Amino acid sequence: MTGLAADYAVCRAINARHGKSFYRATSLLPPARRPHIWALYAVTRRSDDLVDRPEPGRSAAASLAAWRAEVMAALAPDARPRHPVLRALQRTVSSYGIEAGLFEEFFDAMGADLTTRRYATWAHLRGYMRGSAAVIGEMTVPILGGDAGSRPYAARLGEAFQLTNFVRDLAEDWQLGRVYLPMADFRACGVDEDEFGAAVATGRSGPGLRRLVALEVTRARELYDAAAPGLHRVDRSVQPCLRAAFALYGEILNQIERGGFEVCRGRAVVPPARRALVLSRALTGGRPWRSTRSTTPG
């Protein structure tokens, strides 16, 4: 294995370990394009990890700032990065002309995680998601064969994936001191933080919290709908990957819905047999992120 192939193998391992749904979908990409998506994922995964698990002897802010500086320096064609993920990233960025400004937006959002623990409104949360998710979708556009007109759809898909994760991980994020759903929605559903904390502690959500989760599931599905036209604005050879990603993430929402919108009892997991069925259906058509059930809890 050559040096660069080994660098991309490191990125692949990070993706396989941490982003299982995403990894399954990207495995359907043409072999020559997979490593570039894995490189982007590896950079963003390490960045996210440093916020919660900083390097020994360093604060989270210092760890993230040092990594940001390394990443931005690695984007220069004549740079000689030492980290294998950054060597892979450098090749990917130079091969596809990915804009450095997208990485700056991403790191600004990661920095916000160090200071912002609540988001007042959907507009406020979406501002954060611009840097933490939408720009990542935009980074993938040239790799997937899209053009400038593809970028809004890629951005919506990035947001849809992230909001799906926010809903699924609501209880886990609470235990880390963060809430990634709008506080205005909590109030609209009659839920305060004390009630939410009690639900996490007991693993039992009340009607208001279930209504909140149903609201956010609907919002995530609307983002998938907004992203769907982008399926036909990329190379035909990468469309199976995107359909699989839509399906695998969308099925997380369906699983939450089947569980009565209960997200405090444990992370929603799609059973392997169901995952295989959903994936096979996704590759033949339809809108697998859409449920045929009501999204209003009883």
TrEMBL record:
<comment type="pathway">
    <text>Carotenoid biosynthesis; phytoene biosynthesis.</text>
</comment>
<dbReference type="InterPro" id="IPR002060">
    <property type="entry name" value="Squ/phyt_synthse"/>
</dbReference>
<dbReference type="GO" id="GO:0004311">
    <property type="term" value="F:geranylgeranyl diphosphate synthase activity"/>
</dbReference>
<keyword id="KW-0808">Transferase</keyword>
<dbReference type="InterPro" id="IPR019845">
    <property type="entry name" value="Squalene/phytoene_synthase_CS"/>
</dbReference>
<dbReference type="GO" id="GO:0051996">
    <property type="term" value="F:squalene synthase [NAD(P)H] activity"/>
</dbReference>
<dbReference type="InterPro" id="IPR044843">
    <property type="entry name" value="Trans_IPPS_bact-type"/>
</dbReference>
<dbReference type="InterPro" id="IPR033904">
    <property type="entry name" value="Trans_IPPS_HH"/>
</dbReference>
<dbReference type="GO" id="GO:0016117">
    <property type="term" value="P:carotenoid biosynthetic process"/>
</dbReference>
<dbReference type="InterPro" id="IPR008949">
    <property type="entry name" value="Isoprenoid_synthase_dom_sf"/>
</dbReference>
<protein>
    <submittedName>
        <fullName>Phytoene/squalene synthase family protein</fullName>
    </submittedName>
</protein>
<dbReference type="Pfam" id="PF00494">
    <property type="entry name" value="SQS_PSY"/>
</dbReference>
